[in-house]
Write a structure and sequence with these properties.
Length: 137
Amino acid sequence: MLPRWFRRTLVDGEVGPDVQVVARKLGGMSVRYDSELIARVRGYQHMTGLEVDGIVGPLTAGALGEAADAHLPPNWFTRDLSLGMTGEDVDLLRFNLDLPDGDVFDVDTHRAVLRYQSANRLPLSGVVDSRMALLLG
């Protein structure tokens, strides 16, 4: 099963939230799919018996899985997020909730947060706190 964060095959030079997810899962901090991250992917592929090509395609993404680091909120989470807020962190939140691009925590974002909180048995606050961010990855 493909994780929600996987939307495209990642190759050298790519940037975006999906690259940050891969970097975080493999213990890096890259924002660009660069030689350092490719080396980490190759090592992971070798350890898990996948084809060692340094490309994050469906098989590698599936092996990396859905869950983010089990102890830390994702890199994009720097503050609690709520209705009316703006910023890159809101855009990344919307990406993780499968909403269209946008950097405003609008009514649609609020509704999606409430749905996510309900589905994951979190308090229905409409606010993205570190616990919810950790689950989102």
